[in-house]
Amino acid sequence: TLYKDQGWSCERLQRYYNPADVAQEVCVFAYYDKNWDIAPKVRVSGFQSFNELSKKFKAFQPDVIRCYEAFPPFCDYALAVAAQLKIPSYLSLHDGRLRYHQRLARFDVITAYTPTVARNAAQALNRSVDVQLNGIDSQLFCSKTPSFIDERVAHAEYRIFTVGRNDPVKNMDTAIKAT
Asked: CA 167 to CA 12: how far, in whole Å?
């Protein structure tokens, strides 16, 4: 319910967890969350222990296990259950500040959302890590004619608009120096 509490609509959550409606069914296993339906093909299933998670995975019978980020113990849970069920495992890395432990190299597929995170993870794990850029929600971000330009920047030679956290991996200093 974290994203929903942050104001994400069920439609946006469905696109996030099942982009382009590629999966017949998606179940998001979330630590200490409640059970609830995001959409007809996407549901959340809460768990409080590895044993409970393992039972829920076996009942769901997934074709692949995707682990969002390398947070222990959940990444370890994903690897263990994938091994038990003899199905592929997929790790998606998003936070370049994490330390990637060598055991994560056992995931069948590892992707990162930026080249920097991919390069750092590949070096730490001594294996290839593919770059898979985060999708852009074209319903939220599309070409629009500006209705107002702030006078403070209206006559600037360059105008830069960026949204994101001020994190070294985002390289905001380059954008600031460019202006």
From this structure: 25
Question: From CA 121, how far away is CA 167, in angstroms rounded?
Answer: 17
Residues shown for the chain = 179
pLDDT tens-digit map of 52-90: 988 998 898 888 898 988 888 999 999 999 999 999 999
Look up residue 115 and give its two tokens.
Answer: 């080249």
d(CA 119, CA 116) in angstroms, rounded, equals 5
Cα-only R_g, the chain: 20
Query: At 99, which helix (H) or strand (E)?
Result: none
**Burial class, 170, CB count within 10 angstroms (exposed 0-12 / middle 13-18 / buried 19+):** middle
Tell me which residue of 41, 44, 22, 14 sits closest to 32, measured CA to CA.
44
15 pLDDT tier (thresholds 50, 70, 90): confident
